[in-house]
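--- STAGE predict ---
source: upstream dedup step, 1 unique chain passed
mode: sequence only
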Amino acid sequence: MERGKPKRAKNELNCKMANNNIILTTMKPAFLLKSILLLILVNGSYSVNAQITDDFIKGSIVLKNNETRNGFIRNDDFRRMNYKIKFKPTQESNRVFVFDTASIKSIVMEDGEIYDLLRYMPKSAKDSISVLARLMIKGKASLYKVYYRGAVVFIISNNQKTYPVQDDEIPMNSTVVIQNYYTLYLKSAFADYDDLMAEIDKMEFSEAGIVQLVKKYNLHNQSENKIIKMVEKSKGFIVLNADGGITNQDNNLLSFEGTYRVYFPKISKSTSFNWGLKHSTKRYSDQEQFGGISNGIPDPGYLDTSVHYKQSYWAIPFSVHENILNKRFRPYLFVGFTFFDFYKEVNTLYQEDNGAGFGNNYGVFFSWGGGIEADIYKGLLLRSEYRSENKRFTVGIGYHFKLN
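--- STAGE serialize ---
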């Protein structure tokens, strides 16, 4: 991105002259070597696991034959755990066992999560299905939560029956609303408590509203009303890095950045939110003309020459990253916004300093791009990235430290 070029003189040569020769400070080849060495030595992206990898936490599994297995369960995305569980007997074990709904009866995890095997009939299915549903409230009427075909479904288990409660849907590329008749299922689930019927008729679909109905029903029946609390932690990281991109001797970029990165593993282990503070120095050259041409004849002092520029600016980038893979080799995409400020430019002809200082130059830019991170040894990684505002690829080397 090239910004804030100084105005050019049209009829006079406004530059330093010596024996009719322009004195230009050209970039030396040593600059390239320094940039590369700085990139290798400093671009330790000091980060805390720039991505979430597979992790296992303590838990126990009760199989359908009532056998209990204690060990470690993969802390997977919630929607995946509804149908399949990965288990290993010890944290150090390389052997992983996979259990599905055909073999599991229930799961209890160290973070407080409880999953029970339920069978229910989805509205769009021809037959009932089995799911490992996450327990939210335990009582005469128990409340569970599952994902089915990308949508959240709440299941009320009461009197040995299950009642799926799901909001109405509007399919993609359609304007037709698919009604899931959640009020009818709620009335059926609480059919023996007439006082709830009017409240159900007035309610709008929400998780909080359904939770309140279940709690009221259990209190009315003097039943256990245990709220299952889960310790749902986010994963936060600090990333310090330096990246560089070199097109040629006269066109290069060097950036230093500190980023706070956060994941919410129970929602998605591949999506992160990133806030940063970045300082960049960009060097480039443009072909410039000074003076004028009259009737095809250059005016005295006319000059057509290459001018070298050096830009430096601060930026505050915000972006949402999506890892395509959460492995040792991780391609990713991102979108977001970048806020620029404290920008200045110096060129080798004018020696001008344009807009130095906060607030004198600023802008907000839509940002997009992608890249690849690859673990090479323990916490050491290599990275290559393309950012739309830079219009080039940058490369870097990093080192990761775990924050929590």
